[in-house]
Amino acid sequence: MSSAQAQRIDDYCKIIWGSDSEYDIDFETDDYIHYHAVVKKDYGLSFGSPLTITSLCPSMEAASRELNRMLSLWAAQVRSGKPMTNEQKLEIFGGSRGEHKSVLEQFNAELEKRKTNSDAKQT
């Protein structure tokens, strides 16, 4: 990852999760064929839980591009000051070509169904 891209990603992290922290960007692989990027809060001697993770990508460079894409969209949404819409969630987390949108739509539908059932039980 170039230093300019690393700086952009760090800037996006500060917009999304706060400028009072440092963030660790890690690229992980188990097989040297598929890679993903992980963002964690850096506490100095330890790291926090993952804040976001990209989907699997065919190279470290592709994972870096995907993380940059996700965070740029997410940071723009945060800057807008408006609640994140379902369409924005799908655009940010649905993959660079939208390959994960259908899974996220199914997940969101299930969450909404459970929320509706929970609300019905409380009334």
Automatic annotation (TrEMBL):
Official protein name in the record: Uncharacterized protein
